[in-house]
Write a structure and sequence with these properties.
The protein is of the alpha/beta class. Helix content is 44%, strand content 15%.
Length: 530
């Protein structure tokens, strides 16, 4: 066994601690927010503006980190109050129950914030100044009333959650000037007729000589719509008391059933519309529906009701993608006392960029595992050539990503559509590995539409395919325009490496010539050519 110097960096306890740190950053929203770097200038400033926004990006692109960073900065700078709500825990619920659960989350956080505000002091320690805890000295009377009302609405929603989708409601119809209504079953919302409000297990009485009682069924959707006025009132009272807006930060909308998404977004938009409040929604574009047009449109329309922020850093601009990921990696390394160039070679980092497809979390995941591979290499029996992560270390790790991405597909995609995605992906691989193509790049015509195009778009968001160049011209197809995509490196690196398989270098000067080959065309017009 070759003698190892005592000062090998990768085999030091300090580097072992660094690998644990990378895993924490990879998995923790809070740690990700602390080391967040803007993929483009001005992204964070836009996210902090009081404007409804939908934030798009592939898994791991930084949506959650941006929302968490926004929430922290809003509190620390006393700009607004941010409430972060994760949709993933509620993904097994359909509308309106998923809305009820999200409203419960929101009210619970408001209740916690008010409780903290009631104990705030006029002077703060350094730690408190750097935190996002409330600093207002609100009137105790206002706090008590808000806390009471918020707790009551939260309790009503919790009771409504366990009720069937429709409830029996009794209404006392009177010939006089007033009426009386109550829920037939305790714990159900009641129709307040002209008041357009609701109570659970409540009752209002009025005196009249002639009364008739009628029973009818009312759905949870209608009950929630009637109660919307009450929720809007709570938002208005809270923002008025603290003289700051409220930001609802809704993460991972794509976990909600797609047909339910516009209704959820529409209700939350109605909740904040015209109030000193806004909503920010993080999601995956190809797996989301945020607006349904029609005579009575549902949801939020981008451009009219909301703006969009795109966090995706793609290989289309290779230099920009490298600069961004290099900045992320350097910040992480320097925070623990390492220079990036000391612990990973430039060639290995370039392979890291391609393997991650420009996705920050995937880059960190590959980097951490490739580093662990390098440590094993140094501590093993093989001769040690370099005390840093090498291309070989990265390549072996990239091959293992396929299993993780398959798990993401099985966990996040509707089972009814997963078979179609897997079938399309098998076609893509067969095409790329065929003797005709034998290249890691394929072309799809811009005008190619239909279910298969939807599947291809989802494969991009699931990171099985990566956009590398738009508007590619093929001389023999002069009237057509194509987009070029790279097959994920996990399919042809490490133990999956193939002979006679060409890997395109996206920094080559003749890249346009390499991509403009008819044998790379996978789909065009209304037909797939494979």
């Amino acid at each position: 066994m070759a003698q190892k110097p005592n000062d090998w960096v990768l085999s030091s306890p300090k580097f072992a601690t660094f690998l644990n740190f990378l895993e924490e950053v990879e998995r923790s929203r809070q740690a990700g927010a602390e080391y967040f770097i803007e993929p483009a200038s001005g992204v964070l400033g836009r996210a902090k503006s009081k404007r409804n926004q939908i934030i798009f990006g592939r898994r791991g692109s930084g949506k959650s980190s941006l929302l968490e960073k926004t929430r922290r900065d809003l509190g620390q700078e006393r700009i607004a109050i941010g409430f972060f709500i994760d949709c993933e825990p509620h993904k097994d619920n359909t509308y309106p129950n998923v809305l009820i659960l999200i409203l419960i989350d929101l009210l619970s956080q408001i209740e916690q914030w008010l409780s903290t505000a009631s104990s705030s002091r006029p002077s703060w320690s350094r730690q408190e100044r750097d935190s996002d805890r409330p600093r207002e000295r609100l009137s105790k009377k206002i706090i008590r009333q808000l806390l009471s009302d918020v707790a009551a609405e939260q309790s009503r929603l919790e009771q409504l959650l366990v009720e069937p989708d429709e409830v029996d409601v009794e209404r006392m119809r009177q010939q006089g000037w007033s009426n009386s209504v109550h829920a037939k079953t305790s714990g159900k919302l009641a129709s307040h007729g002209a008041e357009a409000a609701a109570e659970i297990g409540g009752e209002s009485n009025a005196h009249s000589a002639n009364e008739t009682k009628e029973t009818f069924r009312m759905g949870k959707r209608e009950l929630l719509s009637r109660q919307l006025k009450v929720y809007r009132g709570l938002i208005e009272r809270l923002t008025g008391a603290v003289a700051r807006p409220i930001y609802i930060l809704l993460d991972d909308l794509y976990h909600v059933h797609r047909s339910d998404q516009p209704h959820l977004v529409g209700f939350l938009h109605s909740l904040v519309k015209g109030k000193n409040a806004c909503i920010k929604i993080g999601t995956v574009r190809s797996r989301s529906s945020w607006y349904l047009p029609g005579t009575q449109p549902v949801g939020m329309k981008i451009g009219d009701d909301a703006s969009e922020i795109d966090l995706d850093v793609t290989l289309e601009d290779y230099d920009a993608a490298r600069l961004f990921l290099h900045s992320v990696a350097s910040k992480l390394a320097q925070s623990r006392g390492f220079e990036l160039s000391r612990i990973i070679t430039n060639e290995a980092f370039d392979r890291l960029l391609l393997g991650s497809g420009g996705v920050a979390r995937d880059m960190i995941n590959i980097w951490r595992k490739a580093s662990a591979q390098a440590v094993s290499r140094i501590q093993g029996r093989a001769p040690v050539r370099m005390d840093s992560v090498t291309v070989e270390d990265v390549s072996k790790t990239i091959a293992d990503l396929d299993e993780l991405k398959q798990e993401d597909l099985g966990r996040d995609v509707d089972p009814n559509s997963s078979d179609g995605l897997l079938t399309e992906f098998a076609r893509v691989k067969d095409f790329c590995f065929s003797p005709t193509c034998a290249t890691n790049v394929l072309l799809i015509e811009r005008e190619f539409r239909g279910r298969r195009r939807d599947h291809l778009n989802q494969l991009v968001d699931l990171k099985f395919l990566h956009i590398v160049k738009k508007s590619v011209s093929v001389p023999s197809r002069a009237a057509r325009v194509y987009d070029a995509f790279m097959l994920d490196m996990s399919q042809y690196t490490g133990p999956r490496q193939r002979k006679n398989f060409r890997i395109v270098n996206f920094t080559d000067r003749d890249l346009n010539v390499q991509l403009g080959q008819p044998q790379l065309i996978y789909c065009e017009g209304d037909h797939g050519l494979n």
